[in-house]
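USER: Fancy drafting a protein?

ASSISTANT:
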Amino acid sequence: MSDALTGTDLLPVWFTTALGPMAPPRRAEEWLETALDVLTYRVTYQVTDPVLALGSAPDASRYPRRTARFKELKRDLRNWGWPLGAGWGDPAREGPETIV
């Protein structure tokens, strides 16, 4: 992950849409933890959507554990939405809705 973030390669659209192009200086560790959680979710549940970080919402009746994780990550991602989610500026300021 660190290599991708410090290199010159472009990050996937879903990544930059949900998390922005880089970690905010004051909360880099929290941002990286969320990024790794999202990557883990995508691998675990084989999410391949090129735009939505978490893909489509799972069927809650069939996949309750996945649904709970989806909701938790969706809430976490609202902190990092680009361009000015709460993690990027004034913590009291609400950012735009994040595409997840």
User: Anything to note?
Assistant: Residues 83-100 have pLDDT under 50 and may be disordered. The radius of gyration is 13 Å. The helical segments are 2-6, 13-19, 28-44, 64-77. The chain is about 45% helix and 0% strand.
